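<amino_acid_chain>
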Amino acid sequence: MFRDTQTNQWFVERVEFNLHATRVRTTFNVAQPLAQAFTPEFLAELMPHLPTSHDRGLLADSQLHVAIAHLSLVGIRVAAQTVFDGIQKVLVRFQRAFGSVQAMLLPRHRTEHAAENALHYVAATALLDLLLPCLDMLRLDASVAKSDGEAGARVAARLQALQGKKHDLEFYVGLLTRYLAHTPGQEAPATAELPDETPAALKGFRLPGPIPVR
């Protein structure tokens, strides 16, 4: 973390979680004000322990207990550096954690939501890639398209564009089908095995069964 001594505002650059044999680091592309990185509950517990002076110093309290929803932290060390060019860097370390360590972060910064957000983006992309060309073709009158060279060329161009995205769309379908099959509270959809010629990237995925057309 660091403090801008001109405005006295605190920012966080990164947060590291030491999980026994592994270490997970969340690094912000742009340093975030504390209120845009941490939950209000955690911030209320943290602020009283940040240095008030601009001098180098160390605070250690092994008896401190921070309790917020889904997380308890015990023991704190706050190491503050001397101000340099209007910036004071501070390292905050908790000795022990019990519960979900990322509960201190706002939900949008937690890694457990990253996959879900990515799948939402994939779903939106797949819908756009499929629906926009289909809607464009549906706007054409079929009888006119047969005799209109320009309309036929538009249909052919759209079909060619869809054909170029065939493997991407298959991959999207595989991801989304697998996601739906493992979503708690959702029934797994009827599935069919992927064909033998399926690209290697899709092996292990299952596609939905036939969709009835009326």
Remarks:
- Helices lie at 40-46, 114-138, 142-147, 149-164, 166-181.
- The radius of gyration is 27 Å.
- The longest helix spans residues 114-138.
